[in-house]
Specification:
heterodimer, A: alpha/beta, 4-stranded mixed β-sheet, elongated, B: 255 residues, mainly alpha, 10 helices
Chain lengths: 162, 255
């Protein structure tokens, strides 16, 4: 028998398939968890970081598997657009996890993004702000590419989305 | 619940928007591996991926309104059943053409979904609120490179201007109105193509003028319509044939 709270807790151990230091909960893509009264069924809702994110299906399967492992018989996982995901949904713990993976965390208040916001980013290696944007598109849809003129390293940012 | 008439109008709107995204997404993907520099290769490929994801979300809305599954809709129709504007079906050509097309189209796209974010049809408003954050990056990209090249060398300026002249009437074709346009406006689904076109002109004019580019004289404008009614150039069917080649070999294949 399992509670909604326990499912949320368990999902903190399900990591993003492309950035294995951050959990789906800290990424802010899990929006609702409901358990039926007899506790035999659970329903989890996810929201996509990007409409074209190819990891979506994999993430649904990972979530489903995790909830099954808690002893829930029927698990349904749905992805919808009910709430638009923005980078402001990433938790403080999640921001640290991105940094740990070598990615600069996105600036906050992503609703106000302009090019200068995207360019003004601290290097995740040396912390210097003497950096420049090389391109807003990177190896995955959620990253932009930058160069640090202080430590002379190329790096990526988890780019702000509002 | 939507009335029967509004449902028809919404479906038509969704089809043309989804088809624009699918077809331009496919065209953008043709730059994968052959971009003029690595960053541009990645940019066009990323925008392609966004557009295909957005197309899928719109085909899913259509499915919820009783249309066929997204894959069936995307892969089993022929050219006359597509409602994209003709601008998006042209081959990628030289980089200057693809860039200017992308600049004109994505400026309209961002404004379109900003307008639709206020839609009275809530499922559409929800996806629009998501798309606009993604489309901002498409606009950044188009604006940045059009301005850089227009201010670059004599040749780069000339090429951007020539592509702008070539694309102009095709781009005006984006805003071809539906016979059910008034229904959409009356029901608050959105403010319609004419309002979008006005917003678009106001958005792109200062950008183009800031880098010495000239919009063709208004009395010479002759929008290329027909795409929304299924009238297409000879460029579309070969694209569809290529896009559906694997699907046609084995429609039930999984990967």
């Amino acid at each position: 028998m399992v509670s909604e709270k326990e499912i949320w807790k368990a999902l903190e151990e399900v990591m993003d398939p492309e950035i294995p230091t951050i959990s789906m909960v800290d990424l802010g893509i899990v929006t609702t968890v409901t358990v039926s009264e007899n506790e035999e069924s659970a329903h989890v809702t996810l929201i996509p970081t990007f409409s074209g994110c190819p990891a979506l299906k994999v993430m649904e399967e990972m979530v489903s598997e995790k909830v099954h492992s808690l002893g829930v018989k029927n698990v349904t996982v749905e992805t919808n657009f009910d709430i638009p995901w923005t980078t402001d949904r990433i938790t403080e713990k999640g921001r640290k996890a991105l940094l740990q993976h070598g990615l600069a965390p996105p600036p906050e208040n992503a609703g106000m993004i302009e090019l200068n916001v995207l360019s003004d980013v601290a290097c995740p290696y040396c912390g210097s702000r003497n950096t420049r944007l090389t391109t807003p598109f990177g190896p995955t849809l959620c990253r932009s590419m930058h160069y640090c003129d202080n430590c002379l390293q190329a790096f990526e940012q988890f780019k702000p989305v509002g | 619940m939507l009335s029967e008439q509004t449902t028809l109008a919404v479906k038509e709107l969704l089809y043309k928007m989804a088809d624009d995204l699918l077809i331009l997404g496919h065209r953008n993907s043709e730059w994968t591996g052959i971009g003029p520099m690595l960053e541009e290769d990645i940019a066009f490929s990323s925008m392609a991926q966004d557009k295909l994801g957005q197309a899928l979300a719109l085909y899913q809305l259509l499915h919820q309104l009783g249309e066929m599954e997204p894959d069936t809709v995307a892969f089993t129709r022929n050219s006359p059943q597509f409602h994209n504007c003709q601008l998006v079906e042209y081959p990628i050509g030289e980089y200057d053409f693809s860039l200017v097309r992308h600049f004109l189209f994505d400026n309209a796209e961002l404004l379109r979904y900003e307008m639709l974010a206020e839609s009275s049809y809530e499922p559409l408003a929800k996806v629009a609120r998501k798309f606009r954050g993604e489309l901002k990056y498409h606009k950044f990209h188009g604006d940045t490179f059009v301005m850089q090249l227009a201010k670059g060398t004599e040749e780069s300026h000339r090429r951007i201007q020539e592509s702008l002249n070539f694309c102009w009437n095709l781009a005006l074709g984006i805003f071809e109105e539906s016979p059910l346009e008034q229904e959409l406006i009356d029901q608050g689904v959105w403010k319609g193509e004419a309002a979008l076109r006005q917003n678009w002109l106001e958005a792109i004019r200062p950008i183009l003028e800031s880098c010495g580019l000239t919009i063709p004289e208004e009395n010479s404008w002759s929008p290329v319509y027909g795409g929304r009614k299924g009238e297409h150039t000879d460029h579309l069917q070969p694209l569809l044939d290529e896009m559906t080649e694997v699907f046609r070999v084995d429609p039930t294949a999984e990967w």
